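Blinded run. Sample ID left blank on purpose so nobody reads anything into the name before looking at the predicted structure. Input follows.
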Amino acid sequence: MDRKFTVRDLIVTGVFSALLLFCAMIGGGIFAVMPTLTFFYPIGASVFAGPVFMLYLSKVPKRGALVITGIILCTFGTLTGMHWGMNFGYLIACILAAVLAGMGHFENKVLNVITYVLYSMGSMGTYLVFFFRRDDWVSFMLKKGTEKEYIDKMNSVAGPKVMLIMIFGTIIVASLSGLLGLRLMKKQFEKAGIAA
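Blinded prediction complete.
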């Protein structure tokens, strides 16, 4: 495996970063707009991106690619006013995912699924701040323009049970989506010549 990053690698990384963001928005967006369901955004965000993520790992099997994805997601989130917990959650998760996938040279299927689960947990950053530093989270979001009514509705359902459902639901759904991605890699992407 050539470790040097090429211009092509950068372009492919940008395209896949955009696709991963799009998949997260499609799957998780319906939860994010509803304050009583917003905690399940990470679950929804992980539904569709597994196949894209697995194809990404096969196209750019280099640690730097996932780190760049983390930087792109963090920057995009910051520019669009997302809570810093989500932005840095994605950045940290992508860095850790890059290390983990690299340990298996981006070819170990089990590590690649775990890598996707770890990546999917990045969006939990904002919700973990909410659960463990609620006053700081509320203050930050009110300054960013989030309506108090939205936050009050979040508070009405927030509890340990919701946090556990968010964490374990994301692990389960991301694992299934990652496994689907591996299956598609073998049955469809490789036959079509999209993946090696």
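Unblinding after everyone has recorded impressions. Residues 7 and 13 are 10 Å apart (CA to CA).
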